Amino acid sequence: MFAATCGNFRGMRLAGAFFANKAEVVDDMLNVEGGFWASTTVPSGATTFQCCCVVLCDTRRRDVGFHYTVHIDAAGPTGQRWTPAWSTKFQLPSAMKFMVLTQITLPIEPGGGRHVYSFRVEGTHERFDIPLDIVVQ
Predict the structure, then answer these.
(1) Residue 42, Cα to own-chain centre: how many angstroms?
(2) How confident is residue 11, by pLDDT bands cut at 50, 70 and 90?
């Protein structure tokens, strides 16, 4: 789903994303427990779930210091959409390869089912989609 880009343009690009039980940065390295969810279980009647996300980035030194906004859009199995479902604004501190988003809350349809979460950087047309099956207990 990524469009070809010329190496002369400035700007962070998303290279991937995944949900995890726990993710943290230790000594500038990524530590992940329980990564790459295919599904998650929620109690009956839930309309949100909490998670950690890892966003893989393609950045260069020339991108450092610029401001970016990462959005996560959501779509439920009946067509309900949340645009955006979650966002964060930040100034790129270094030519990083990943971001850890801890304890974020994302929306779900109460009946569960297959949801799709789309990660995107504001101002670009690229996105990275993560399907997630929501199982209602």
Answers:
(1) 19
(2) confident
CA distance 112 to 41: 9
Task: For residues 89 and 107, give the distance between their C-alpha atoms in angstroms, rounded to a whole number.
Answer: 19
Euclidean distance between CA atoms 131 and 73, whole angstroms: 12
**CB under 8 Å to 77, separation ≥6 — which residues?**
109, 111, 112, 113, 114, 115
- Residue 135's alpha-carbon distances to 6, 45, 108, 110, in angstroms, are 42, 11, 11, 10
Per the CB < 8 A criterion, the answer to whether 54 and 30 are in contact is yes
Helix (H, G, I), strand (E, B) or coil at 115: strand
Domain layout of the chain by residue ranges? 13-136
pLDDT at 95: 86
- CATH code for residues 13-136: 2.60.40.1930
Residue 125 has a pLDDT of 87
Tell me, what's the pLDDT at 8? 45
Residue 127, pLDDT > 90, answer yes
- pTM, to two decimals: 0.89
What is the amino acid identity at position 107? P
